[in-house]
Amino acid sequence: MENFRVAVKSFIVQEGKLLVIKRRSDDVHKPGQWDIPGGRLELGEDPMEGLRRETQEETHLEVDIVLPLEVRHFTREDGQKITMIIFLCKLLGGELRLSKEHQAYEWVNVEKDDGKIPVWLNLAKDNFLKYNFNMA
Fold first, then answer.
1. How far apart are CA 30 and CA 58, in angstroms?
2. How many whole angstroms separate alpha carbon 91 and alpha carbon 14?
3. pLDDT tens digits for range 4-60
C-alpha cells in the first residue's frame, strides 16, 4: 500500500490579515518555518471536522469553513505523498493560544506580504485576492 495522506489547512483571514504560525525550531518537519493551522486527517475522518479539530488543537480558535481555495499534491522529504486542501475560514471565536508545536504567530497583511506567508500558499492567496472575499 502506498504511503498517502490527506491534509487540511485553515486560511484564516480577519480584517485583511492572514493568521500565520511559526513551527518550533526543533520541529521534525520544516523547523522554524511559517505555516498556517492544520494537519493530516485521521483515517476515515471527515475533512471539515478534521480541519476544525486541527485548528482548535493548534490555536484554540473556532472557525467557520467558507470554501476550498486550493488543492495541492506533493511528496514530502520522507517520501510520504500528501493531498492538501486549503480552506478559506472565518474566525468565529476563541482566544488564540498556540500548541506546543508552534513558537509564534502573527496576523500578516494578505496583500502586502512581508515574507511570512509561505511561498507554497501563493495560489491560495491569489485565489483569495482574485475573488475579493469580504472577510470582515
1. 16
2. 7
3. 899 999 999 999 999 999 999 988 778 899 999 999 999 999 999 999 999 999 999
Q: Show Cβ contacts of residue 115 under 8 Å, excluding neighbours closer than 6 positions.
A: none
**Opening angle at CA 21, ends 106 and 66, nearest 5:** 90
Domains of the chain with bracketed CATH? 4-130 (3.90.79.10)
DSSP assignments along 68-120, one per residue: EEEEEEEE-TTS-EEEEEEEEEEEEE------TTEEEEEEEESSS--S-S-GG
* All three cell numbers of 125: 492567496
Type and span of the H or E element at 127: helix 122-130
Query: Could you tell me if 39 and 8 are in contact, meaning their C-beta atoms sit under 8 angstroms apart?
Result: yes
Nearest-CA neighbor of 87 among 69, 71, 73, 108?
69
The pTM (predicted TM-score) of the whole model is 0.90
Task: Determine the Cα–Cα distance for residues 135 and 125; give it in Å rounded to an integer.
Answer: 13
Q: For residues 51 and 10, is the Cβ–Cβ distance under 8 A?
A: yes
CA dihedral in degrees (9, 80, 71, 124; nearest 10)? 60
